[in-house]
Amino acid sequence: MKRRKFLKNSGTVTAGMLSAPLLASYSENKNQNDTVDKIKTSYPIALCTWDFGNATAKAWEVLNAGGNSLDAVHEGVMIEENNLNNQTVGNGGRPDRDGNVTLDACIMDKDANCGAVLALQNIANPISVARKVMEETPHVMLVGKGAEQFAYEQGFKKTNLLTEKSKKDWEDWKVTSKYKPIINIENHDTIGMLAIDAKGDIAGACTTSGMAFKMAGRVGDSPIIGAGLFVDNEIGGATATGVGEEVVRTVGSFLIVELMRQGKSPQEACEEGVRRIIEKNKGKLDFQIGFIAINKKGETGGYCIHPGFSYRSFSKEGHVNNLAGSYLKS
Ligand code: SD4
User: What residue's CA is closest to ligand 1, atom 2?
Assistant: First the structure.
């Protein structure tokens, strides 16, 4: 996905698929401290960070056929893991500074079962390995070589994940730049997905190749339960995108779910989550963070630091790209 394209499309709706009242609730152009209207909808619903329409469509297909939220988020995010044009998730992701593509993913179900893989190499679908960790091991996280070995034991095939395009980007980067993550240049497009199924059960998944040209061994928030993703089936779920170090420092997704437990709407909770990060950084905001959340009623919200973050939702009311409200204004 091209960032410019998603910015252009943000706030638009798949033609003919959305009823008018939903359009009125877009969280766009609100003042800094406003609580933005939430989108109300009924079960089932799937939503994800950024404008990944094919991923939410896949999740919706699962949900609409009576499938559960765990299968929906799993199959949904795999669409982007397999999308070679997405250079921030799965196969085709940009490598670390040594030229190795290392992938992070986690998944969490309605019973608080969870699984994660960190810095996994040579496996195209880290979310599937994360699910296997959840379902087939007594552990929550497997990292690096251990995760890769486990994947082979589970029947996953060794795959070269470095596409020519990502290799070229890495070679150019080595020549032209010093490492510094820069908002809207490193193209943070991790997919975090939340779904609530017809029974009202919530699950989430998050998968990424992490920050482009990161140090070898670096892991961000995305595979860390509580940071990049958290689900509590009694309350709701949240997931994050952006500079993971900042999300880890505030255990962002867990915080948002706890704020919803205290009575905040998903929108209010996302705004507060962003504010906590901003407070910790004392005015230095040269990075992007975006959160999305859903509660048990099927209400959703999203918020970010810099304008431009959007999130896709798909329910029986329609297929929507929601432009999230932002702390800073354009
Ligand atoms: C990370 N949060 O590894 C991820 C990066 C990201 O879109 O969101 N990219 O820090």
Answer: 244
| DSSP calls for 210-236 | -STTPPTT---STTSBTTTEEEETTTE
Catalytic residue among 41, 102, 190, 239: 190
pTM for the model stands at 0.87
DSSP annotation of 138 reads S
Q: Say which residue the tokens 């920050």 belong to.
A: 211
Phi, psi of 256 (to 5 degrees): -65, -40
Is 140 in a helix, a strand, or coil?
coil
Q: Share the mean pLDDT of the chain.
A: 86
The reply to whether omega before 44 is within 30° of 0 (cis) is yes
Query: What atom in ligand 1 is closest to the CA of residue 242?
Result: 8
Q: Of all atoms in ligand 1, which is nearest to the CA of residue 189?
A: 7
> Domain 22-30+40-163+182-326 falls in which CATH fold?
Glutamine Phosphoribosylpyrophosphate, subunit 1, domain 1 (3.60.20)
**CA 220 to ligand 1 centroid distance, Å:** 6
Residue type at position 158:
K
Phi, psi of 160, deg, nearest 5: -80, 115
Ligand 1 atom closest to 243 (CA)? 10
Q: Is the peptide bond before 307 cis (omega within 30 degrees of 0)?
A: no
Domain boundaries, the chain: 22-30+40-163+182-326
pLDDT tens digits along 2-44: 333 333 333 333 322 333 223 222 233 333 333 334 444 578 9
| 242 CA from centroid of ligand 1 (Å) | 5
Contact 171, 72 (CB under 8 A): no
Q: Which helix (H) or strand (E) holds 7?
A: helix 3-9
Q: State which amino acid sits at residue 115.
A: G
Q: Which residue type occupies 189?
A: D
For 137-142, the CB contacts below 8 A with 24+ separation are 139/115, 140/114, 140/115, 140/116, 140/225, 141/115, 141/116, 141/117, 141/223, 142/116, 142/117, 142/118
Q: Is 190 a catalytic residue?
A: yes
pLDDT greater than 50 at residue 1: no
